[in-house]
Design brief:
It is built from seven helices and eleven strands. With 259 residues, it is α/β, with parallel strands linked by helices. The protein has two domains: 147 residues, Tetrapyrrole methylase, N-terminal domain (Cobalt-precorrin-4 Transmethylase, domain 1), CATH 3.40.1010; 106 residues, 2-Layer Sandwich (Methyltransferase, Cobalt-precorrin-4 Transmethylase, Domain 2), CATH 3.30.950.10. Helix 1 crosses helix 2 and helix 3 packs across helix 4. The chain is globular.
Length: 259
Protein backbone atom coordinates (compact mmCIF):
# COMPACT_ATOMS: atom_id res chain seq x y z
CA UNK A 1 0.00 0.00 0.00
CA UNK A 2 1.29 3.48 -0.83
CA UNK A 3 0.40 6.49 1.30
CA UNK A 4 1.07 10.02 0.10
CA UNK A 5 0.75 11.93 -3.13
CA UNK A 6 2.69 14.66 -5.00
CA UNK A 7 5.63 13.81 -2.76
CA UNK A 8 9.17 14.84 -3.50
CA UNK A 9 10.71 11.71 -1.98
CA UNK A 10 9.70 8.03 -2.06
CA UNK A 11 10.56 5.63 0.74
CA UNK A 12 9.92 1.91 1.27
CA UNK A 13 9.02 1.03 4.86
CA UNK A 14 8.24 -2.36 6.38
CA UNK A 15 6.58 -2.39 9.81
CA UNK A 16 7.73 -5.51 11.66
CA UNK A 17 5.99 -6.98 14.68
CA UNK A 18 8.68 -8.49 16.91
CA UNK A 19 6.49 -10.07 19.57
CA UNK A 20 6.17 -9.37 23.28
CA UNK A 21 9.81 -9.59 24.31
CA UNK A 22 10.99 -13.18 23.95
CA UNK A 23 13.35 -13.49 20.98
CA UNK A 24 12.18 -17.05 20.34
CA UNK A 25 8.71 -15.69 19.54
CA UNK A 26 9.89 -13.54 16.64
CA UNK A 27 8.51 -15.12 13.48
CA UNK A 28 10.65 -16.53 10.70
CA UNK A 29 9.14 -13.98 8.34
CA UNK A 30 10.19 -11.12 10.63
CA UNK A 31 13.73 -12.47 10.91
CA UNK A 32 13.95 -12.88 7.13
CA UNK A 33 12.79 -9.32 6.48
CA UNK A 34 15.12 -7.84 9.10
CA UNK A 35 18.05 -9.74 7.64
CA UNK A 36 17.61 -7.88 4.37
CA UNK A 37 16.68 -4.27 5.23
CA UNK A 38 19.11 -1.39 4.82
CA UNK A 39 18.24 0.42 8.03
CA UNK A 40 16.05 0.20 11.11
CA UNK A 41 14.31 3.20 12.68
CA UNK A 42 13.37 2.95 16.34
CA UNK A 43 11.74 5.30 18.81
CA UNK A 44 13.95 5.36 21.90
CA UNK A 45 12.38 5.81 25.32
CA UNK A 46 15.80 6.39 26.88
CA UNK A 47 16.55 5.24 30.40
CA UNK A 48 12.86 4.69 31.08
CA UNK A 49 13.00 1.34 29.31
CA UNK A 50 16.61 0.43 28.57
CA UNK A 51 15.68 -3.24 28.86
CA UNK A 52 13.41 -2.89 25.84
CA UNK A 53 16.29 -1.47 23.84
CA UNK A 54 18.42 -4.47 24.83
CA UNK A 55 15.71 -6.91 23.76
CA UNK A 56 15.29 -5.11 20.46
CA UNK A 57 19.05 -5.28 19.91
CA UNK A 58 18.98 -9.03 20.55
CA UNK A 59 16.30 -9.46 17.88
CA UNK A 60 18.39 -7.57 15.33
CA UNK A 61 21.51 -9.58 16.17
CA UNK A 62 19.58 -12.81 15.74
CA UNK A 63 18.18 -11.67 12.39
CA UNK A 64 21.45 -10.27 11.03
CA UNK A 65 23.67 -13.18 12.13
CA UNK A 66 26.51 -10.87 13.03
CA UNK A 67 26.15 -8.51 10.07
CA UNK A 68 25.94 -4.85 11.15
CA UNK A 69 22.68 -2.97 10.82
CA UNK A 70 22.26 0.78 10.58
CA UNK A 71 19.98 1.80 13.43
CA UNK A 72 18.44 5.28 13.51
CA UNK A 73 17.20 6.17 16.99
CA UNK A 74 14.53 8.83 17.42
CA UNK A 75 13.54 10.38 20.74
CA UNK A 76 10.13 9.03 21.68
CA UNK A 77 9.35 11.96 23.95
CA UNK A 78 6.65 12.01 26.59
CA UNK A 79 2.99 12.91 26.65
CA UNK A 80 2.22 16.26 28.27
CA UNK A 81 0.46 15.35 31.53
CA UNK A 82 -0.95 18.87 31.71
CA UNK A 83 -3.18 18.28 28.68
CA UNK A 84 -6.26 16.13 28.30
CA UNK A 85 -5.56 12.55 27.23
CA UNK A 86 -6.67 13.11 23.64
CA UNK A 87 -4.75 16.39 23.27
CA UNK A 88 -1.62 14.90 24.83
CA UNK A 89 -1.70 11.89 22.50
CA UNK A 90 -2.34 14.14 19.47
CA UNK A 91 0.67 16.31 20.28
CA UNK A 92 2.88 13.32 21.07
CA UNK A 93 1.95 11.60 17.81
CA UNK A 94 2.54 14.84 15.92
CA UNK A 95 6.11 15.11 17.25
CA UNK A 96 6.74 11.47 16.36
CA UNK A 97 5.51 12.02 12.79
CA UNK A 98 7.80 15.01 12.37
CA UNK A 99 10.82 13.10 13.71
CA UNK A 100 10.13 10.10 11.48
CA UNK A 101 9.57 12.27 8.42
CA UNK A 102 12.88 14.08 8.97
CA UNK A 103 14.74 10.79 9.43
CA UNK A 104 13.32 9.39 6.19
CA UNK A 105 14.33 12.57 4.38
CA UNK A 106 17.79 13.05 5.87
CA UNK A 107 19.12 9.59 6.71
CA UNK A 108 17.58 7.25 4.12
CA UNK A 109 18.62 7.32 0.48
CA UNK A 110 16.64 6.40 -2.62
CA UNK A 111 16.16 2.67 -3.04
CA UNK A 112 16.83 1.75 0.58
CA UNK A 113 14.32 -0.31 2.53
CA UNK A 114 13.63 0.73 6.11
CA UNK A 115 12.18 -1.35 8.96
CA UNK A 116 10.18 0.03 11.86
CA UNK A 117 10.11 -2.36 14.83
CA UNK A 118 6.87 -2.75 16.77
CA UNK A 119 6.40 -4.65 20.01
CA UNK A 120 3.75 -7.35 19.71
CA UNK A 121 1.66 -6.91 16.56
CA UNK A 122 1.33 -3.64 14.59
CA UNK A 123 -2.46 -3.92 14.44
CA UNK A 124 -3.08 -3.89 18.20
CA UNK A 125 -2.65 -0.79 20.36
CA UNK A 126 0.27 0.55 18.40
CA UNK A 127 0.35 3.88 16.57
CA UNK A 128 2.99 3.15 13.90
CA UNK A 129 0.60 2.55 11.00
CA UNK A 130 -1.38 5.68 11.89
CA UNK A 131 1.85 7.68 12.05
CA UNK A 132 2.85 6.49 8.57
CA UNK A 133 -0.57 7.34 7.19
CA UNK A 134 -0.35 10.86 8.62
CA UNK A 135 3.21 11.21 7.36
CA UNK A 136 2.10 10.32 3.83
CA UNK A 137 -0.68 12.89 3.96
CA UNK A 138 1.82 15.68 4.70
CA UNK A 139 3.09 15.50 1.11
CA UNK A 140 6.85 15.50 1.62
CA UNK A 141 7.41 11.72 1.65
CA UNK A 142 5.52 9.08 -0.31
CA UNK A 143 5.62 5.93 1.79
CA UNK A 144 5.25 2.42 0.38
CA UNK A 145 4.26 0.37 3.43
CA UNK A 146 4.38 -3.38 4.08
CA UNK A 147 3.51 -5.06 7.38
CA UNK A 148 4.86 -8.22 9.02
CA UNK A 149 2.57 -9.42 11.84
CA UNK A 150 3.90 -10.52 15.22
CA UNK A 151 2.82 -12.49 18.28
CA UNK A 152 0.87 -10.13 20.52
CA UNK A 153 0.81 -9.96 24.32
CA UNK A 154 -2.89 -10.77 24.00
CA UNK A 155 -2.06 -14.16 22.50
CA UNK A 156 0.72 -14.79 25.00
CA UNK A 157 -1.53 -13.91 27.95
CA UNK A 158 -4.02 -16.59 26.90
CA UNK A 159 -1.22 -19.10 26.31
CA UNK A 160 0.47 -18.49 29.65
CA UNK A 161 -2.78 -18.95 31.55
CA UNK A 162 -3.92 -21.78 29.22
CA UNK A 163 -7.36 -20.24 28.70
CA UNK A 164 -9.36 -19.33 25.59
CA UNK A 165 -10.06 -15.65 25.09
CA UNK A 166 -13.81 -16.14 24.81
CA UNK A 167 -16.50 -18.70 25.57
CA UNK A 168 -17.96 -21.01 22.92
CA UNK A 169 -19.63 -18.91 20.23
CA UNK A 170 -19.04 -15.81 22.30
CA UNK A 171 -17.51 -12.44 21.51
CA UNK A 172 -14.48 -10.62 22.91
CA UNK A 173 -14.22 -6.93 23.72
CA UNK A 174 -10.71 -5.43 23.57
CA UNK A 175 -10.53 -2.10 25.35
CA UNK A 176 -8.52 0.18 27.62
CA UNK A 177 -8.59 0.85 31.34
CA UNK A 178 -10.04 4.29 30.73
CA UNK A 179 -12.97 2.87 28.79
CA UNK A 180 -13.47 0.09 31.32
CA UNK A 181 -13.96 2.74 33.98
CA UNK A 182 -16.62 4.34 31.80
CA UNK A 183 -18.63 1.10 31.89
CA UNK A 184 -19.07 -2.00 29.79
CA UNK A 185 -21.75 -2.49 27.12
CA UNK A 186 -24.64 -4.74 28.06
CA UNK A 187 -24.10 -8.43 27.45
CA UNK A 188 -20.28 -8.30 27.44
CA UNK A 189 -18.79 -11.16 29.43
CA UNK A 190 -15.23 -11.46 28.03
CA UNK A 191 -12.95 -8.42 28.04
CA UNK A 192 -9.24 -7.89 27.40
CA UNK A 193 -7.87 -4.66 28.86
CA UNK A 194 -4.73 -2.81 27.77
CA UNK A 195 -3.24 0.47 28.99
CA UNK A 196 -4.63 0.39 32.51
CA UNK A 197 -2.35 2.33 34.84
CA UNK A 198 -5.15 2.74 37.37
CA UNK A 199 -6.04 -0.95 37.88
CA UNK A 200 -9.61 -0.31 36.77
CA UNK A 201 -10.58 -3.94 37.42
CA UNK A 202 -10.85 -3.03 41.12
CA UNK A 203 -14.14 -1.34 40.27
CA UNK A 204 -15.62 -4.72 39.30
CA UNK A 205 -15.41 -6.29 42.75
CA UNK A 206 -18.63 -7.87 43.88
CA UNK A 207 -19.88 -8.42 40.31
CA UNK A 208 -18.73 -12.01 39.71
CA UNK A 209 -15.71 -11.37 37.47
CA UNK A 210 -12.60 -13.56 37.11
CA UNK A 211 -9.25 -12.09 36.03
CA UNK A 212 -6.18 -13.47 34.28
CA UNK A 213 -3.41 -10.86 34.59
CA UNK A 214 0.11 -10.78 33.17
CA UNK A 215 3.00 -8.32 33.30
CA UNK A 216 6.23 -8.26 31.25
CA UNK A 217 4.95 -11.18 29.21
CA UNK A 218 7.73 -13.00 27.40
CA UNK A 219 10.44 -11.35 29.50
CA UNK A 220 12.61 -12.81 32.30
CA UNK A 221 10.59 -11.12 35.06
CA UNK A 222 7.19 -12.16 33.73
CA UNK A 223 4.49 -12.28 36.40
CA UNK A 224 1.06 -13.93 36.30
CA UNK A 225 -1.92 -13.79 38.64
CA UNK A 226 -5.35 -15.37 38.15
CA UNK A 227 -8.48 -15.76 40.23
CA UNK A 228 -11.75 -14.08 41.16
CA UNK A 229 -11.39 -10.30 41.10
CA UNK A 230 -12.75 -10.15 44.65
CA UNK A 231 -9.89 -12.34 45.88
CA UNK A 232 -6.86 -11.24 43.85
CA UNK A 233 -7.45 -7.55 43.03
CA UNK A 234 -5.42 -6.17 45.93
CA UNK A 235 -2.61 -8.64 45.27
CA UNK A 236 -2.35 -7.46 41.66
CA UNK A 237 -2.46 -3.78 42.68
CA UNK A 238 0.33 -4.29 45.23
CA UNK A 239 2.47 -6.45 42.92
CA UNK A 240 2.07 -4.05 40.01
CA UNK A 241 3.16 -1.06 42.11
CA UNK A 242 6.16 -2.96 43.45
CA UNK A 243 7.30 -4.08 39.98
CA UNK A 244 6.91 -0.62 38.51
CA UNK A 245 8.94 0.92 41.32
CA UNK A 246 11.67 -1.72 41.06
CA UNK A 247 12.03 -1.76 37.26
CA UNK A 248 11.01 1.81 36.44
CA UNK A 249 8.37 0.84 33.88
CA UNK A 250 5.62 -1.72 33.41
CA UNK A 251 3.53 -3.24 30.67
CA UNK A 252 0.62 -5.43 31.68
CA UNK A 253 -2.59 -6.76 30.17
CA UNK A 254 -5.46 -8.82 31.50
CA UNK A 255 -8.50 -10.85 30.56
CA UNK A 256 -11.77 -10.48 32.45
CA UNK A 257 -14.57 -13.03 32.33
CA UNK A 258 -17.91 -12.84 34.08
CA UNK A 259 -18.58 -16.11 35.86
Amino acid sequence: MTWGSSSTVQRSVVVVGIGPGDGSMVTLEALSVLSDVDAVVVFDKGGRASELADLRRDVLERARDGRPCRVIELDDGRRDEGLSYRDAVRDWHGSRVEALEQALLDEITDGERVALLVWGDPSLYDSTLRLLSELGSRGRVEVDVAVVPGVSSLQLLAARHAVPLHEVGGSLLITTGRRLREGLPAGVDDVVVFLDSECSFTGLRGAGWHIWWGAYLGMPHEHLVAGPVDEVAERIVSLRASLREHLGWIFDVYLLRRR
